[in-house]
Give the backbone structure.
Amino acid sequence: MRTLASLLTLLLALSALAGAQEKPYFVTYDHTMEETGNLEISWQNTIGLQQQGLPTFYAPFGEFEYGWSGWWTSELYVEGATQAHDSTIFTGWRLENRFKPLNGEHRVNPILYLEYERVSEGSRSNVEVVGHSQPDATSLHDLHGVKSHELEGKLILSSNARGWNISENFILEKNLTEDEGVEFGYALGVYRPLSMIASGSNCRLCRENFTAGMELYGGLGSTQGFGFRDTAHYLAPVLAWRVGKDSTLKLSPGFGLTSNSARMLLRVAYTYEVEGFGAKVKKLFGGRP
Amino acid sequence: MKIVSTSLFFCLMVAALATGIAQQPAGPDPAWVAPAKEAARRNPLAGRPELAAGGQKVFNRGCAVCHGDEAHRAATKAHDLGSAAVQAQSDGALFWKITNGNARKGMPSWSSTPEPQRWQLVLYIRSLGKTADGGR
């Protein structure tokens, strides 16, 4: 209890030190790019409650997102997994790049996404759900050595209207290590802030600091069998709370919709924005900020 | 296969570093002009100056990192928002620029900030002009 209280105190202290445009989504991408020169550090946690008789898993991952320019954002992920009565393993890393081809704001804003992954079959982060799925019954210990190289592309379409964000992601993934064909997936999301007007006070619990929405994501098979058969799908309410100027807490209970899905994916994340990170690094090495 | 993927990774990293370090050129962009229809829009919150305080909060959260804590005292390359050049623009033009951003110059689009809050930002930016003019 004391540890929890200390952690909460530290969190609030950090948040006071630390404005980013933080979306509540865990899986879906909208067209918000990282602000130029800012570094966003995120610690995300997924607890998976599987179908009857299968072990519960915990999959943490760290995310480092940097805005190179107004049209280019990069992200590096490192992830691990723990399964009940099983092993704890490092499951790999991912490097993604997002490109905004059109300047300005449009009715529908396209973003191009390209990712390279070096992950083991023991990955449980479920940051994207593609292809066919089976319940995760195999021991992490046995999967640790089964690593794959994967390339992933996404077409992100996103719109902002009347305070709402509506985003659609179409996903293609190719395993370069094994011949699984090209796998397909989707993610759809919608969110809205709870208040449209900003109050003048520095309140933490006022409605303007909360954003709520819903995500729907899942696999669509592969070139070896396109469709919904043997695929996992999740419906997940999402909530984001801006606890400070640059920090956000996010929560999402995702409910499995098919027998190939986990029963629930409970996600919690803490995100901290380091403003002007690029300028600080340049200054450190004697450059002009 | 390992060689291919490792090479791919390093190519991506090198490309990222090279282009990232280059960044975008600083300075004004003469092509960044609000369309006439957008520039003619009026601030629906113009009669509620008390809402500028909320605009200041939004400003400090998202804009101050580039435009400076008190905007017109910016030590960065971003525009001095209290300057005559900025204050001469209509409310609609400022709103359009906040909404659309200018990716070529590193100004992000703030379209995910609710529309009323973007108008609150315009209210706050107007108050900076008054401060710079000594309250005139």
Q: What stands out?
A: The CA atoms of residues 187 and 217 of chain A lie 4 Å apart. The longest strand of chain A covers residues 147-161.
